Amino acid sequence: MLLALMLWPVSLSAGPVFERVDAPNHIYAGGWEHFVGGGVAVFDCDGDHLPELFVAGGTNPARLLRNRTDEAGTLAFSENTPETLALKGVTGAYPVDLDGDGILDLVTLRVGENAIFRGGADCTFESWRLPGLVQTDAWTTAFSATWEAGRDWPTLAFGNYVDRTDPDGPFEACDSNVLFRHDGQRYGATSLEPGFCPLSALFSDWDRDGRADLRLSNDRHYYVRGGAEQMWVMGSEPRLLSEDDGWIDHELWGMGIASRDLDFDGLPEVFLTSMGDQRLQRLVSRDVPRWEDVPYEMGTTAHRPHVGGDGRPSTGWHVAFGDVQNDGLDDVFIAKGNVDQMPGSAMDDPNSLLIQEIEGKFVEMAEGAGIATMDRSRGAAMVDLDMDGLLDLVVVNRRAPLEVYRNATSEAGNWLSIELRQDLPNTRAVGGFLEIDTGDKVFVREITVGGGHAGGSAGPEHFGLGSVETVRLRVVWPDGIASDWIQVPANQNLTASRDGSHVIVRAY
């Protein structure tokens, strides 16, 4: 059994409920070069703590949707796309404060030259070419960032899909990936080869030794043979782990990555989506990064449609952990949809919402929650959009309209929402860890940039607390220094700022 029995979660018999919210009509469109991607970046760009949505459009222009939730809590968005952001060819985007000025910037992934935008006041953006950060005419489908020790600028990893210039492609024609490191003056590029067509990338300090390594989830459909999932160790020169290091090869049609400590040992499990089964993996060795697939009994494979009658295998894309009922148990959302017209995969392929029960088993509840739509979903985000303490949902669909859902679950437990802040250069404390002690268990949450599928969020970390009303909180900052424990009441949106060995929390 993956999880130990916990006594404090709330038993919620009714299950989660989501209500669809009217949103500006937006479609991720395109053919061959846009059957992957379709991500969404979620972040607050005007300082009101309500997150905006920057949505990839493929052959349509990307769009910025401003959060217009009113004082009564009515969730709403309106289009307010600056001309600089209205690009075509965008597959996805990730928000990150690159220059440490406290304002989030945007890294956009494209079919063609990627684009970086420097964020300004009130959701203004300017095109930004950083010295040495040369972008090519690649087909970029994955991204992650971290701050390595001693560096004032983040290390950036770009994952490139099929090499469109290879006349022998597309099969066995995966492009190389690129790592950019800053030397204090400019960025320098390192090619990460071989490349096996990544659709997700994630820097993570998997064993909490102070170094984040790079995991790539690769699409077997195009590497065909000789490839697998990859882990690059970030030493002075990146090194690809092999079986000689104890690394276990996993070959799958990798689409998305999510990481979360589910068994309360302080180390992350990993969820990988795929064309076929979805794989929740448990870390089984701290000496080497070795994960093993969790048995089918956990209920996490989500390998076939749960409604609709199409018995062919599902295709999973974006994956996200989050406690949608605030019962103290993390759940899983998976965006699903056929690549296009692949006859071996389900055409009617509803999204999945896997709700974790007290004994650790996951149960499918998307249909009852009202989110089991049949469109070809791609990117997604599970974020509190209206600051009411419940995680809402955004889903980007290929050739179908964007979906926004408000979490309307009536029976929900207590919660806590926390954003980290520290001085430059790494103002959002990427690579740090939040620890929440409920008295019975300690939640450990790593702050990362990357993962999912073609999009990510920069904002508060959300914790469902069940019946717990007060917790202890501390932060292990990216440099390894831990703050003192402090006691905070539940049901608050907090900013936790660094002050020496102390952490100062403010509600907003």
Helix and strand topology:
Blueprint: E1 18-21, E2 40-43, E3 52-55, E4 63-67, E5 77-79, E6 90-96, E7 105-110, E8 115-119, E9 125-127, E10 140-146, E11 155-160, E12 177-182, E13 187-192, E14 198-204, E15 213-218, H1 220-223, E16 230-234, E17 238-240, E18 254-260, E19 269-274, E20 279-285, E21 290-293, E22 316-322, E23 331-336, E24 352-356, E25 362-364, H2 366-369, E26 376-383, E27 392-398, E28 403-407, E29 414-421, E30 433-437, E31 442-446, E32 449-450, E33 457-458, E34 461-466, E35 470-476, E36 486-489, E37 493-499, E38 502-507
Parallel strand pairs: 2-33, 29-37
Antiparallel strand pairs: 1-28, 2-3, 3-4, 4-5, 6-7, 7-8, 8-9, 10-11, 10-32, 11-12, 12-13, 14-15, 15-16, 16-17, 18-19, 19-20, 20-21, 22-23, 23-24, 24-25, 26-27, 27-28, 29-34, 30-31, 30-35, 35-36, 37-38
Mean residue pLDDT:
94
Number of helices: 2
Rough shape? Answer: globular
Q: Work out the number of β strands.
A: 38
Radius of gyration using CA atoms only? 21 Å
Spatially, the strands of the biggest sheet line up as: 5-4-3-2-33
Q: Given the helix and strand composition, which structural class is it?
A: mainly beta
Q: How would a textbook summarize the main sheet? A: 5 strands, mixed
Strand fraction equals: 35-45%
Distance between the termini: 39 Å
Low-confidence stretches: 1-8
Helix content percent band: under 10%
What does this structure look like?
The structure is a single chain. This protein is an all-beta fold and 508 residues long. Helices cover 2% and strands 40% of the residues. The chain contains 2 helices and 38 strands. The strands form 9 sheets. Strands 5-4-3-2-33 form a 5-stranded mixed beta sheet, with no helix packed on it. Strands 13-12-11-10-32 form a 5-stranded antiparallel beta sheet, with no helix packed on it. It is globular. The two termini are 39 Å apart.
